[in-house]
Write a structure and sequence with these properties.
The chain is 28% helix and 27% strand. By secondary structure, the protein is an alpha+beta fold. The strands form two sheets. The protein has a four-stranded antiparallel sheet, with helices on one face. It has a two-stranded antiparallel ribbon with strand order 5-6. The termini are far apart.
Length: 126
């Protein structure tokens, strides 16, 4: 489950915890395992912020800065800096959400007629 209600040192954060689809033990273990994998992947995608010693710096333009993990009352949360105005769910629910998402990611441009085009292609479609 995802929550956007946490503020740390004046910085809004997005917090995500594991939530099992059912109440059985196996589902809870799977949810916890998935959260652990997600924490590992995010730690590799977004190495420690402002860590100049990181040798594998990747472009993270479209990845929310990963802050790390915290444990509160026995629940582990993954934390990211809040970024952007909408959630993925918001884009899905919009009438033309995929167009808005592409525009927000800088993948499209409007031509003089108001039509949306792809920045990554030239006139030959390459």
């Amino acid at each position: 489950s995802v929550t956007v209600a946490y503020i740390y040192a004046g910085q809004p954060l997005v917090a995500k915890s594991a939530r099992a689809a059912t109440l059985d033990t196996r589902a809870k273990q799977n949810a916890d395992s998935y959260l652990g994998i997600e924490a590992y992947v995010n730690s590799k995608l977004c190495p420690v912020l402002n860590d100049d010693t990181t040798s594998h710096h990747h472009s993270t333009q479209h990845v929310a800065p990963y802050v790390g993990e915290c444990n509160m009352n026995g629940t582990t949360y993954l934390l990211w800096e809040a970024s952007g105005e909408y959630t993925l769910e918001d884009y899905i629910e919009m009438e033309d959400g995929w167009v808005q998402l592409a525009a927000d990611l800088g993948l499209t441009t409007m031509d003089d007629n108001g039509d949306i085009g792809n920045n990554s292609m030239n006139d030959d479609g390459v």
